[in-house]
Amino acid sequence: MDYRILFIAPLAALVLSVNSASAQLPTGWMPLSQAMTANPGSAGLNGYEIGIDPATESSRTRVLTVRSTAPQIDQTPSVGAAWQQAYGYAGQRVRFSGQVRAEGVRGWAGLYLGAGDGTLLSRLALGQPGVEKHLPTGAGVAAGATGWQDVSVVVDVPAGALSINLGLALVGEGQVWARDLRFETVGADTALSTTPIGIDWARARQFMEQNRRTMAKAPPQPLLNTTLD
Questions:
Q1: Is 221 among the domain residues?
Q2: Which of 59, 64, 119, 192 is the most buried (most CB within 10 A)?
Q3: So what's the pLDDT on residue 103?
Q4: If you compute the radius of gyration of the chain from its CA atoms, what whole number of angstroms results?
């Protein structure tokens, strides 16, 4: 199901799609595309293209990619991700790693890992109250870096966590690629990662509060096409 929410803000529209992608996704992976664009029509229903890089579909090493497809509004974070959930790791130390490269990124790009469900990144980008308590840990591509970078994220899964959410994410514009991904349990001697994913949830919250105040002042609007013509 696709959800499209239009906010009362000049030239701004948020396009959220959790079950569609314009590129082929590997089995077991799911797309998340939440984009704040000036012209949502130019981005289709996504705002991001998420899936296997077509140039690698027939190669031995397939490459996962997330690419923005339209210019974005800067007031609130946009995020695209290829993600999945893992179960049964409560109380364990785990590592998600691979090789990542990025081009033209205006924001953040890399791997992330954290306790929570598939809506976690959406709630962060929307600045929903309480999300700062559940920030996923991220391992991003260094600014200005070129070529493939070895990246890994290590976290302790909370004892009460029913699931963990992990994936490749792009916050803002640009394109990111990942290959040779691995997920494994590790020992206590493996250092924990401490950097959160690069979503500015505080800025998102400010923007959404401003939108709510604007919408509260809007005059009554008639329904459209009640005759279903």
A1: no
A2: 64
A3: 95
A4: 18
CATH assignment at residue 107: 2.60.120.260
Write out the H or E segment, with its range, that includes residue 87.
strand 79-87
Alpha-carbon distance 66 to 142, whole Å? Answer: 17
- Backbone phi, psi, residue 11, to 5°: 55, 20
Residue 225 lies in a domain: no
Residue 223 covered by a domain:
no
DSSP state of 28: T
Is 54 strand, coil or helix? helix
- What distance, in Å, lies between the first and last C-alpha atoms of the chain? 24
Distance CA 13, CA 38 (A): 7
Residue 35 belongs to domain spanning: 2-216
Closest CA to 125 of 112, 141, 139, 143: 112
pTM score of the predicted model: 0.81
* 79 belongs to a structural domain: yes
The stretches in the chain having pLDDT less than 50 are 1-21, 42-45
- Say how far apart CA 152 and CA 121 lie, in whole Å: 19
